[in-house]
Write a structure and sequence with these properties.
Layout (H helix, E strand, L loop, with lengths): L5 H4 L15 H17 L15 H13 L10 H7 L1 H8 L7 H14 L5 E3 L2 E4 L1 H6 L11 H15 L14 H11 L2 E2 L1 H6 L9 E7 L2 E12 L2 E9 L9 E8 L5 E4 L2 H4 L1
Antiparallel strand pairs: 1-2, 3-8, 4-5, 4-8, 5-6, 6-7
Helix pairs in contact: 5-6, 6-8
Pfam families: CHAP, PG_binding_1
Protein name: Peptidoglycan-binding protein
Length: about 270
């Protein structure tokens, strides 16, 4: 795999605890982030706390509550073993075995595996587009300017291609820009424009990449096509929400009417063969 930053998100440098001699802000922020992500999926766990890098009484209590909810010894201390449980969704998303006999199947199943592990951004230091999921998709980058929809798409393509022994960068450069991928698609003649896609849906295939067009050379959002049905496509996409925002906060399975939208399609066929 080319995109391996997620591995750094699976580790803390030392055991973290209230008034701990080895506490460091970055590790405490990681712990607080995962406590909040856990609380989103388990709202009655009492694991939500502020993300400020300070292992104070609130964080200690959140750790106690997490440990109780998971039937772990209630110490209020986070060593690597406890952190492993906190970060297990990220590890599962990137490292669980993915089935599929073709690259397209692997792309779809990889995307579905990430989706079921609930990737979600956080607001840290008043910056949206932050947190361990965003950093994993964006190679360590985070913060309000870092829209992460293409980072998510490339992480999925990279993970799936690596299973087949392929390098996704033969298809497109490592980038976080929809414009870069759209331009490459034009240059390689593998970008189906929305006008053509509307009249010939057979050109749209599951595991291809959709690009929402603002102008002919400006694209504002992306994701992976999972199915095509008449006038609509099903997708899995990052940095979106229920309204289909290009700057939402999660990975979602969405439905988009491509015949009423300006959606171009980037084919992964050259990587498949």
């Amino acid at each position: 795999m080319q995109k391996t930053f997620y591995q750094k998100e699976l580790l803390i440098k030392a055991t973290q605890q209230r008034k701990g001699a080895n506490n460091n802000k970055k590790d405490v922020e990681k712990i607080q982030s995962w406590l909040n992500l856990f609380a989103m999926q388990n709202p009655n766990s009492g694991a939500a706390a502020g993300i400020d890098g300070d292992f104070g009484p609130a964080t200690e209590k959140a750790v106690f509550n997490f440990q109780k909810f998971k039937s772990l010894p209630q110490t209020g201390v986070v060593d690597q073993n406890v952190f492993d449980i906190l970060v297990s969704p990220l590890k599962k998303a990137f490292e669980d075995p993915v089935s599929g006999s073709s690259l397209r199947e692997l792309v779809l199943n990889t995307a579905k595996n990430h989706l079921k592990n609930h990737p979600f951004e956080l607001v840290i230091n008043n910056q949206s587009n932050s947190g361990p999921w965003v950093r994993s998709y964006m190679d360590g980058n985070e913060g309000t300017p870092w829209f992460w929809c293409m980072g998510f798409v490339q992480a999925i393509i990279d993970q799936a291609a690596s299973i087949k022994g392929e390098n996704f960068k033969t298809l497109m450069p490592l980038t976080y820009s929809c414009d870069t991928v759209g331009t490459v698609g034009i240059q390689k003649k593998i970008l189906t424009r929305y006008q053509v896609a509307k009249t010939n849906p057979a050109l749209i295939k599951p595991a291809d990449i959709f690009l929402i067009q603002k102008t002919p050379n400006d694209w504002v959002h992306t994701g992976i096509v999972t199915a095509v049905h008449d006038d609509v496509i099903e997708t899995i996409e990052g940095n979106t929400n229920a309204d289909g925002s290009s700057n939402g906060n999660s990975v979602m399975n969405r439905i988009r009417n491509y015949k009423q939208s300006k959606i171009d399609f980037f084919s992964i066929e050259s990587l498949v063969v």
